[in-house]
Amino acid sequence: MGTAADPAFDRETLRQGVEGQSPDLLLSLYADDAEFRIVDRTTQPSHPKVLHGRDEISRMLEDVYSRDMSHKLERCVIQGDEAAYSESCEYADGVRVLSESMISLKDGKIAEQTLVQAWDE
Predict the structure, then answer these.
(1) Per its UniProt entry, which superkingdom is the organism in (predicted)?
(2) 49-52 and 69-79 as β-strands: parallel, antiparallel, unpaired?
């Protein structure tokens, strides 16, 4: 558990944001200057999509969580100033997405995140 000087990352807020499809709640977990990298079939490791700051991250979260799909937080591990979680998603037509995230934390907020995702094809 964190202290006032070192707040803990809020796993329950992450779960509520992901499963409740609440981009605003999720955005509250990010530092103002957070960096978010996305690696998938189209944005491969040598050229990931990189979002800088809460404004860019907010637009991505709004897009993802406005889609007709379900989201489930599968696992979340927090150790010191690092965290990792798995998220499974399913579109209304049955297409599934699995993502894995590695996170660096600063003052209990997400400072850096790398998300690797795979889609049904």
Answers:
(1) Bacteria
(2) unpaired
1 located within any domain? no
- The per-residue pLDDT for range 30-63, each reduced to its tens digit, is 999 999 999 999 999 999 999 999 999 999 999 9
Number of structural domains in the chain: 1
At 6, the pLDDT band (50, 70, 90 cuts) reads low
Q: Measured between alpha carbons, how far is 57 from 59 in angstroms, rounded to an integer?
A: 6
> Is 71 within a domain?
yes
- Burial state string for 70-91 with b = 16 or more CB within 10 A and e = fewer than 16: ebebeebebeeeebebebebee
Q: Specify whether the CB–CB gap between 88 and 74 falls below 8 A.
A: yes
For residue 39, which amino acid is it?
A: V
Q: Give the residue numbers spanning the domain of 42.
A: 11-119
Q: Does the pLDDT at position 2 exceed 60?
A: no
